[in-house]
Design goal:
The protein is mostly beta strands. The chain is built from no helices and nine strands. The radius of gyration is 13 Å and the shape is globular.
Length: 92
C-alpha cells in the first residue's frame, strides 16, 4: 500500500548524494507542468499516482510524483488536517 500525503506534510526525496526536504503545497491528479528555475517540469499525475508541488525552506520549489517522496518523519503519516505550516491535527 502506498503512503498518503496531504497539503502541509513534511516530505523528503533522494537528491544527488543526500536528501531534499520540503512541505507539500499543492496536489495534482492529472498531467501538470510548472516552470521551476526556468525549466518546464512535467509529471503525468493520476488519482493513483498524484504529483505534488513542494516548497523547500529556502523558498525553492520542486514537482515530484508520489513514488518519489516519503514522509520526513513517521508522525507526518498520521496528519489528517494541516493546521498551519508546521502543525497538523493528528488522528485519534
Amino acid at each position: 500500500m502506498s503512503q498518503r500525503f496531504h497539503i502541509g506534510d513534511s516530505v523528503k526525496w533522494k537528491w544527488e548524494t543526500g536528501w531534499g526536504e520540503g512541505q507539500i503545497r499543492e496536489r495534482f491528479t492529472e498531467r501538470v507542468t510548472r516552470q521551476i528555475n526556468g525549466a518546464d517540469i512535467t509529471r503525468n499525475a493520476t488519482n493513483d499516482e498524484p504529483a505534488y508541488l513542494i516548497e523547500q525552506a529556502d523558498g525553492g520549489r520542486v514537482l515530484k510524483s508520489q513514488s518519489e517522496i516519503k514522509h520526513d518523519s513517521p508522525g507526518d503519516a498520521l496528519c489528517s488536517r494541516p493546521v498551519s505550516l508546521n502543525k497538523c491535527e493528528l488522528l485519534p
